[in-house]
Each structure stands twice: as C-alpha cells, then as structure tokens.
Amino acid sequence: MKTLDTLTFDNRFARLGDSFSTEVLPEPIAEPRLVVVSQDALALLDLDPQEAQREVFADLFSGNQLWSDAEPRAMVYSGHQFGGYSPRLGDGRGLLLGEVLNHAGEHWDLHLKGAGLTPYSRMGDGRAVLRSSIREFLASEALHALGIPSSRALCVTGSSTPVWREKQETAAMLVRLAQSHVRFGSFEYFYYTRQHDQLKQLADHVLACHYPECLQQPQPYEALFRSVLERNAELIARWQAYGFCHGVMNTDNMSILGITFDFGPYAFLDDFDANHICNHSDDTGRYSFSNQVPIAHWNLSALAQALTPLIEVDKLKEILELFLPLYQAHYDDLMRKRLGFTTAEDGDEELIQRLLTLMQAGKSTDYHLFFRHLGEQAPADALQVVRNDFVDLQGFDAWGADYLARSNREGSDQAARQARMHAVNPLYVLRNYLAQEAIAAAERGDYAPVRELHEVLSRPFEQQAGKERYALRPPDWGKHLEISCSS
Ligand code: AMP
Ligand code: MG
User: Fold this and answer.
1) Helix/strand/coil (H, E, C) string of the chain?
2) Who's near 260: CB < 8 A, 6+ residues apart?
3) Which of 82, 266, 293, 449 could be joined to 441 by an S-S link, Cβ 3.0–4.6 Å?
4) For the segment 463-475, what is each residue's pLDDT rounded down to a tens digit?
5) Comparing C-alpha atoms, which of 187, 194, 382, 215 is closest to residue 303?
6) How far is residue 266's CA from residue 416's CA, in Å, rounded to a whole number?
7) Probe residue for ligand 1, chosen from 89, 166, 253, 282 as the CB with the greatest number of ligand atoms within 8 Å
C-alpha cells in the first residue's frame, strides 16, 4: 500500500518531448473540497483508502499542490468534430500530471481535468464545472462496473471559484485515470501537420507501452491498427448492448486503447429508442444511438488516413473491412447472454432484431429492466410480466413463443438461468435523472447523494438492500431531461 508521499512516477509520455505536449502548471482553485472518491480507482494506484481522509488529498488532486515527481503537461492533438477537421485542439483545460507506476507494473495517467488555461484553450476558460465533473465521474465508474472499458475517475474536488456557463457555477477538478490519453486525434495532428517523424514516434510509443504484443508481429504498425480496430468493435458492441449513448464521438474523443473516453452529454437509454440523440447540439443526429456503429467505423477510417505514412493503403482498407463483422459477432454474443442463451443458433440475430423492433414501435419498454425481469422467473412467466410494456401485443406474443421455444432448447433450470442472466443484466443503471438529482444536491453542498449513487452503481448486478428507489423505472419527467452540453 502506498501513501500520497510514496507514489512512484514514471512519466513516459512527458519524455517524448515538446512536440507532443507543453509544460503547464495547474491554476489553483479556491477552497478545494473532496466531493466524491472512488476506492476502486485508489486501488489502481495502490493508494491506501485512508489517504482520502487527509487534508492534503484534496490539495494534491485539485492541483493546488504538486508532487515533486509530477510533470504537468498539456497534450497536443487535433480531430474531426462532427465530421469536419479541427486542425488544433489539445488539452484546453486538462493536464497530464504524470504516470503512476503500480505494483502490478501498470502505468496510470493522472489527468487533472479543469486545471486552467493552456496553450490549447482557444476561447475556453480552462475550467470544468461541478456538474459535468460529477457526470464524468459517475459514468466512468458505472461503465467500468458494467464491464464496459472506460477511462476511470479517481475523485472530484469542488471549489468556490466561480465559473460562467449559461449561469454562474463553480469550478471543479476531476482526476481521470487511464493507461493512455493518446487519442485518434493525436495521430491526426502529426499527419495533417506533416510531422511524419513524430507520427512514427507516437506509434512506436503506443506500441511499446500499450500494445507490446504487436511488436512480435511481422508488421507491427498493421498489427497495431488491427488491434485498435478490434478493441473498438468490442467497445461499441458493449455500448449498443447496454444502451449507452456517448453523444460526442469526435475523433479527439476516441481513445487509442479502445476505451470509453471523454464524457459530455452522454446518456443511457431509458425506453428503447434506436434513434435517440442525447446531445442537444447534434442537430442532424450524427451521434444518435444507432449511428454509433457506422460512426466508430468512420472514425477508424480517419485514424487509418493518419496512419498512411506507416501502413499501405490497401492493407488499411483490408483491416477496415473487419470492423462490421467483428462488431456484429460481439454484439450478438452479448445479446445472447442478456437473453439467457449459452449457445448460438442461426436464428438468434433475427430474434434479437425482432425484439428491438417491437421495443422501438412502442417506445414504452424500459431497456434495462426488460432484461432484468426476463431473468427473474421462468421464461413463460417472465414473458407475461414484460409483455405489459409492449404496444404491439400480437407481435410480442409471436416473439414470446419463439423466445420460449429457443429458451427451452437451452434446457437449464431456472435458478441457473436467473443467476446467469442477473450477472449480465444490471438492476441499477446511471439514469440521467438520478445523476441530475445527485448533482443538484452537490451544488447545494450536500455530497451524500452523489456518494451513495456512486456506491450503488459500483455493484450494478447485485440487489442491494434499501436501494430500491435506484432500480425503479424513471418518472416521466426524468426521461426527457435536457442535459446542458456545456461543461
Ligand atoms: P470536448 O468537447 O470536451 O471533447 O472538448 C473539445 C476541445 O475543447 C478539447 O480540446 C478541450 O480541451 C477543449 N475545451 C473544452 N472545454 C474547454 C474549456 N472550458 N476551456 C478550454 N478548453 C476547453
Ligand atoms: Mg474531448
């Protein structure tokens, strides 16, 4: 176990030099106070949980005090935003403080989001507000608990520093952990500025630090692109299977590790709606729920373009072709599990699609509770319960008959089926209204609700005594919240 004084830093990205990032000191926030902390994330750094009780904790994780071995730097990148190329983005309000090396030999980036102005701040103020910091914190940890790869969140620190958005709010700092903060847009930056030596240096860094197995392949860069694509196919399959809508899939928000990254106006679906658009400034629905699949593919093409100095175009095209079949295989696999199947049958894909079409037609089926309830009783009884949420009852009964026949072919007893299904179908989901309630309390200085929500979501599959209200269907007002895109 480490203390705050004994963390080991090994700042590999900083050593790449000034072409990749710029040294910047964090700008302190006034009266830092710890809002919420993730014990699971502390463990990634080998930090003793007791350390969060120390006063210096909030000072260090709000950038008001620095470790002597930290080397705070703003990373440069660019990216395609809503389809158009933005030549220079970079960390406009985030700083990579350094990389903490844990006992398992893993390096974890300590990234401070909301740390003040950098050379990449453009028109922004370099700050993050409490509201958006809490949203990112909750989502990172909730996704992780659901088994969906994500950047992690160590803690949120609030302050009395005023920040202007639509109204006056207060500045907060989020400490984000990830094994890398390199994005698709990092490669695009060096490609479009024709810095091909740096492009190669970045690819070599990512290979050595994050994809060492690709170095054993005859063509390491090809193997790297293929691995990034494979991880993204699996990630997007998980988003689609669990109803997660990212909202801003710009290439600067796509991690080279294939993890969920950079949280804005994200949402988990409540009632199933494939066309759901969670980002209210996304007028054309470019990042709607169902578009996440083609958009991920599009983003991988943008990355492929940036890698053309390292990999032959024909090879890149060949690898890109793998995306959709890989995605589909992962998605089908996840959905079979969610439906309680342990085997694969030819008709499964159609059965899944018919179910979603029925949900879509009614827009009255809670996407998460449907699966949870389906596992709660034997198939025939469970179907009678979930049936009530469908509008096309005839259609649902026809589907139900086929589902029943399919389930009977599985032949497992109900106790085993329930255990299997409950292990993949969460009871607790980060619904927008739950986040909003916790944020409203935190803005009043009451951090208990956000801490409790985080706690509940860290064990989403386990029924927790006294936490029934978190498992309810959202109230009508809670389904149609307009979440501010400002952050
Ligand atoms: P995002 O939409 O959060 O992915 O941010 C896109 C770009 O804008 C990134 O380069 C951010 O660093 C930058 N950015 C967002 N908000 C601010 C802010 N308040 N101050 C400075 N830069 C910002
Ligand atoms: Mg971003």
Assistant:
1) CECCCCCCECCCCHHHCCCCEEECCCCCCCCCEEEEECHHHHHHCCECHHHHHCHHHHHHCCCCCCCCCCCCEEECCCEEECCEEECCCCCCCEEEEEEEECCCCCEEEEEEECCCCCCCCCCCCCCEEHHHHHHHHHHHHHHHHCCCCECEEEEEEEEEEEEECCCEEEEEEEEEEECCCCEHHHHHHHHHCCCHHHHHHHHHHHHHHHCHHHHHCCCHHHHHHHHHHHHHHHHHHHHHHHCEECCCCCHHHCECCCCECCCCCCEECCECCCCCCCCCCCCCCCCCCCCHHHHHHHHHHHHHHHCCCCCCHHHHHHHHCCHHHHHHHHHHHHHHHHCCCCCCCCCHHHHHHHHHHHHHHHCCCEHHHHHHHHHHCCHHHHHHHHHHHCCCHHHHHHHHHHHHHHHHHHCCCHHHHHHHHHCCCCCCCCCHHHHHHHHHHHHCCCCHHHHHHHHHHCCCCCCCCCCHHHHCCCCHHHHCCCCCCCC
2) 139, 140, 143, 148, 149, 150, 151, 235, 239, 244, 246
3) 449
4) 999 999 999 999 9
5) 187
6) 34
7) 89
Percentage of the chain beyond pLDDT 90 is 97
Question: What distance in Å separates the CA atoms of residue 198 and residue 201, rounded to the nearest whole number?
Answer: 5
Q: Tell me the one-letter amino acid at 153.
A: A
Contact 253, 183 (CB under 8 A): yes
pLDDT at residue 373, as a whole number: 98
Res 370: pLDDT: 98
Query: Whose alpha carbon is nearest atom 14 of ligand 1?
Result: 92
Label residue 147 left, alpha or beta by phi (over 0 means left) and psi (-120 to 50 means alpha).
left
309-365 confidence digits (pLDDT tens): 999 999 999 999 999 999 999 999 999 999 999 999 999 999 999 999 999 998 889
Nearest ligand 1 atom, CA 253: 4
Going by alpha carbons, the residue nearest to atom 11 of ligand 1 is 92
CA dist 438 and 436 (Å) reads 5
Residues sharing a CB contact under 8 Å with residue 432, sequence separation 6 or more, in sequence order: 267, 268, 270, 474, 478, 481, 483
Q: How far is the CA of 321 from the centre of ligand 2 (A)?
A: 27
Is 253 marked as a binding-site residue? yes
